[in-house]
């Protein structure tokens, strides 16, 4: 957006889909945020020191502390004219954006995380450096001890299992099929004629499986991925939605 950039700090666990969603929201709003990445338990504790409630991502700055991407979008949208807001306030656009948020950030975000973590977490040699790279040195130094706990927390939180991973893979394909059909008319955005939260939710949800240029989270290179995950990624990257998402990343999610 025009004018001087607002400065803030973004407290995250880097791989979270909600973390990428927040990165894209604040990019749109022209907020210069210093990202501070931590492992989940450390991040949760640190939120309490900065006006948060134990949940991440937390964006905080002079006079505000905002948890989770949707409230962050609402907060900064309030300063914009209606025709520039990520969350439209007029129907039918508002209803469609809300439905897309539930689909992409909600159901699909969970499915992507479930499928990816089911295949990634058992490969400790692959994932321990990924989790450790952006965090404080003390968290990184303790990862050889804490990795089993981190894996257990993610496994419990997502209820990881082979059966649920297979169902998630099928759901990912179903959602991508529907999105391919939706954009087949050549539209530039999912809803209306400008960027909305629908586009951001779509991009952030699928980014871990597409690894688009400009993606803000560190992930293993596709050639190092476990074979079931790599096979799905190779397939999805050929789809029209993948090109749609890459174009949005290339455009920078800039609200100007």
TrEMBL record:
Query: Which Pfam families is this protein grouped with?
Result: GST_C
State the source organism's domain of life.
Bacteria
Question: InterPro entries attached here?
Answer: Glutathione-S-Trfase_C_sf (IPR036282), GST_C (IPR004046)
Domain Glutathione S-transferase C-terminal span(s) in chain numbering: 162-207
Please give the SUPFAM superfamilies that the UniProt record associates with this protein.
Answer: GST C-terminal domain-like
| Protein name, per record | Glutathione S-transferase C-terminal domain-containing protein
The species this protein was found in? Sphingomonas suaedae
